[in-house]
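Hi both,

Apologies for the delay on this - the queue was longer than expected. I finally got the nicotinamide-adenine-dinucleotide-bound model through. Below you'll find the protein sequence and the ligand SMILES exactly as submitted, and right after that the structure tokens for the full complex including the ligand.
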Amino acid sequence: MTTLRDKIIIITGGTSGIGEGCSRHFAALGARVVIASNQAGPGSALERELRAAGHTADFVFTDVASEASVQALIAHTVELHGRIDGVHCNAGVWAQGKVTGFDDAVWNRVMDVNVKSVFWTAKHVVPVMERQGAGVIVITTSVAAFVGFPSHALYCASKAALEALVRCLAVDHAGKVRVVGLCPGTIDTPMLAATCAGWDKPKAELYAEVARRIPVRRLGQPLDVAQAAAFLLGDESGYINGTSLVLDGGTMALPPW
Ligand SMILES: NC(=O)c1ccc[n+]([C@@H]2O[C@H](COP(=O)([O-])OP(=O)(O)OC[C@H]3O[C@@H](n4cnc5c(N)ncnc54)[C@H](O)[C@@H]3O)[C@@H](O)[C@H]2O)c1
């Protein structure tokens, strides 16, 4: 059975959706979690709740798009716990539209939060993990890296960049740092709910239609992703490096017609 007992794990975007599920699940598996996001209220509430349940949890307000903020997060975690065993780079944003409708500001926001954040996190955590002799970085990518979702060029490009980063970081730092991608399909989170805005049907109806098209006939839940992430952050996955695990209920296995 997977255990994360006493492992020090940072989860970015750890206060909502997939990240919140990971914060809760990692804590339940014995990890000392450092929950990082730009949601101060939910972060403090989650910290309180996990501590009240007997877990070790700290919320650190972080803007992952800022190198200084990420650097401070890493430094603060080392101050708190003396080491960092795992980082789950999970914070992300979504933007809808075709290339003709985007401007520099939207490009920068999506690329900064989704991609640059992982660059800066790796830059500052790799030296810590190399000093320790071990560490794992798990990066939430998306099936959007592999398929052309209509009107999602920017989001898809950002996720494809992360798939490349998984490979490059894994090769550059192999032996001490393991780097693995986690590639979800359709997961029931506030981000997914936001994608339903502007459709002519209620969310429940849209979700039911999507579920019918997924081979396992249901949307993924944050816990589905958290369980896989815990395995990848744990000691039982020690030979998995430089690749991504797809969690999509079989959607990508469907024939394309
Ligand atoms: N929900 C899905 O179907 C799905 C599918 C594939 C991949 N993903 C990816 O999973 C990850 C989590 O998404 P989710 O669906 O749980 O979304 P969500 O909107 O529920 O959560 C996103 C989290 O990222 C945080 N965040 C955003 N910008 C930030 C910033 N600048 N600094 C710090 N934190 C920031 C938010 O505060 C929030 O905690 C994202 O990377 C997303 O792209 C989601």
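Main takeaway for now: The beta strands are 8-12, 32-37, 57-61, 86-89, 135-140, 177-184, 244-247.

I'll put the files on the shared drive as well.

H.
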